[in-house]
Amino acid sequence: MVASIPRLFVDAPLAAGAEIAATEAQAHYLVHVLRRAADSPLLLFNGQDGEFHARLLHAARGKARIGVEAQTRLQIAEPDLWLVFALLKRDATDLVVQKATELGAAALLPVITRHTNAERTNPARLTAIATEAAEQCERLSVPVLHAPQKLPELLAAWPAGRRIFAAVERRAAPAAPARHAGPAALLIGPEGGFAPAELDALHAHPLVTQMSLGPRILRAETAAIAGLALLLAAGAGTPDPS
Ligand code: SAM
Fold first, then answer.
1. Is the overall model pTM greater than 0.85, yes or no?
2. Whether the CB of 189 sits within 6 Å of ligand 1
3. If you ran DSSP here, which 8-state letter would residue 23 be given?
């Protein structure tokens, strides 16, 4: 069986001929988990310079150096679609971060709502989950992970020109749009749903469009995955030709 080529995100400029140091975690993963020896091929990306072939040059005592070779892919932008999601319990948040990364979300914005029962994230853990998902799914960037903020503050500072599709259950909201170009975001509520005052605030916000995901009440993580897939299929986040 041919071993697959490990694909790693690196926080360093990439260009043919460059030599970079792997992090301790990457060195451990390459040498002790994958048992790769010097000269093994790798693929590297950094979110800016595309993807490059590379080679493990030297690995010993928790350190590894990597030689960058030829470029394999040019950098392309992800769709400019953000996921705003009410914080969930740890496993569900992990799942949302992993799947949103695989689907191509450009940014992940945890939000605190009236019925959210968590207020904090572990940024290092969520960044590691997003990075691993980006490495595995062959995307060329890792989504930007924001610190949690309260829903009213998020809505008050919302950037002009970015439509928010707010997923609301048990309402006569329209289905996901068939076509929507331009910057966009999907907003998913907590397990307890949005409070009535929050629904009123969403209704009054000029950039919010309420959206149904069908007649069933989905778990928040299912709603995040389904909503992202529907919006991406509609072209959300692609440049607006108008
Ligand atoms: N506790 C709420 C209830 O029983 O009515 C359900 C909340 S649901 C588990 C969590 C979030 O997923 C909601 O706030 C909403 O954003 C989204 N969601 C779930 N099902 C949905 C649907 N059918 N249409 C739109 N959004 C949905």
1. yes
2. yes
3. P
